[in-house]
């Protein structure tokens, strides 16, 4: 059973973004599986690093679309991205220092943040960008 499952409520009606969100969900599930099964630090570290890198790529893509179409909530949305990126870098730094950062609390944070960000923040730009012909 997956830690997080995709469902249509998470769709922002923009195929490219939905596919990226699905990939983020899969990566969080992979990180959870690595943690749950006690896989080695190397595997967990690789998964965490990949997740952080992909989040950066995804955020840049969302921001490019919002900026291109003059989305009025761009600054606030970008601020949320910046905050999460810094939190992820802090977690990764702690992990590299050998601190125990992969736990249920972290996984619940990632799950909650992704769901809340998609359902609360991303859903706000969806009708705007759809109205600009982005689908």
Features:
single chain; 135 residues; mainly alpha; Four Helix Bundle (Hemerythrin (Met), subunit A); 75% helix; globular
| Spatial gap, N to C terminus | 31 Å
User: How many strand units?
Assistant: 0
User: How does the major sheet shape up?
Assistant: none
**Portion in helices:** over 70%
The succession of helices and strands, N to C, reads: HHHH
Structural class: mainly alpha
**Roughly what is the average pLDDT, rounded to an integer?**
87
CATH superfamily heading: Hemerythrin-like
At the first level of CATH, what is the class? Answer: Mainly Alpha
The CATH architecture would be Up-down Bundle
Number of helices: 4
Q: Stretches where pLDDT falls below 50 for ≥5 residues?
A: none
Outline: globular
CATH domain topology: Four Helix Bundle (Hemerythrin (Met), subunit A)
Counting structural domains, the number is 1
Estimated share of beta-strand residues: under 5%
Radius of gyration (Å): 15 Å
């Amino acid at each position: 059973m997956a830690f997080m499952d995709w469902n249509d409520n998470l769709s922002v009606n923009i195929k490219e973004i939905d596919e990226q969100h699905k990939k983020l969900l899969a990566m969080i599930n992979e990180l959870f599986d690595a943690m749950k099964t006690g896989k080695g630090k190397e595997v967990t570290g690789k998964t965490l690093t990949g997740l952080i890198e992909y989040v950066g790529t995804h955020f840049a893509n969302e921001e490019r679309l919002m900026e291109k179409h003059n989305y009025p909530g761009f600054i606030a949305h970008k601020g949320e991205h910046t905050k999460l990126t810094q939190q992820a870098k802090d977690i990764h730094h702690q992990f590299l220092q050998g601190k125990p950062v992969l736990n249920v609390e972290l996984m619940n944070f990632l799950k909650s943040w992704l769901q809340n960000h998609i359902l609360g923040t991303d859903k706000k730009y969806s009708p705007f960008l759809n109205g600009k012909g982005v689908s």
